[in-house]
């Protein structure tokens, strides 16, 4: 087990996790550190207390980090939908190297400040910030945020529960890809609005160059609707370690979905 995996596992122990969080709070908000563990080791990160400490520790979702590095190759294009503070984006930008590109989508002002800071700190000329929510339409959308940036999403029936509302620019992936480099891989983590993003990517999903998808599934119901939608495009499902998900099984929390044209990479 790597050190990053060990620290990640220790952080999940309630008492130890509390201690690690207390230690992390001793650092000044906005201070810059060098990431020591995980796939971003050696990269710089600007810390903000509103974001997860596991980002700058390098231990955030280690299996996801490993999957990104495995799936992305030099010269490829990555769309980070729900980029948050930019941790996944900087790993992806490093993985695709200077001939590839990462497009990092996020509409929240606080996230955009952090995201741009990480890109500048690491001199990532191959990473572009897209100040927009990814949705099923172009124009404007109502965004709802509770206390943490990680809980924000496009408004739905839950909008009356008391979250903070703000109006943000919305874009579909099909529209964006029509005037930018098309993605080889898309990560989608937008707190339950994943199906909206997929509905706005129908041309991409149906194309001969359909992308690999890495989607965070936030509930069993969302998993069922996402699974049914992607099956209609011929996608097959795996966990982050590339173990096939049998038909009828509940989709994993992190779903890796591959189109027929990219199935050979699973062999």
Verbal overview:
- 33% of the residues lie in helices and 21% in strands.
- It has 267 residues and is α/β, with parallel strands linked by helices.
- It folds into 2 domains: 1-60, no CATH class; 62-266, Rossmann fold (3-Layer(aba) Sandwich), CATH 3.40.50.
- The strands form 3 sheets. Strands 5-4-3-10-11-13-12 form a 7-stranded mixed sheet, sandwiched between helices. Strands 6-9-7-8 form a 4-stranded mixed sheet.
- The longest helix has 13 residues, at 109-121.
Major sheet attributes = 7 strands, mixed
Rounded to the nearest angstrom, the distance between the terminal CA atoms is: 25 Å
Count of discrete alpha- or pi-helical segments spanning 4 or more residues: 10
Shape: globular
Content of β-strand: 15-25%
According to CATH, the homologous superfamily of the largest domain is Vaccinia Virus protein VP39
Give the rounded overall mean pLDDT.
Answer: 88
Query: Order of helices and strands, N to C?
Result: HHEEHHEHEHEEEEEHEHHEHEE
Number of strands: 13
Structural class: alpha/beta
Question: How would the blueprint of this fold be written?
Answer:
Elements: H1 3-11, H2 14-24, E1 32-34, E2 44-46, H3 53-57, H4 62-71, E3 77-81, H5 87-96, E4 101-105, H6 109-121, E5 127-130, E6 133-134, E7 139-145, E8 153-154, E9 164-171, H7 173-178, E10 185-188, H8 194-199, H9 202-206, E11 212-216, H10 220-231, E12 236-238, E13 254-258
Parallel strand pairs: 3-4, 3-10, 4-5, 6-9, 10-11
Antiparallel strand pairs: 1-2, 7-8, 7-9, 11-13, 12-13
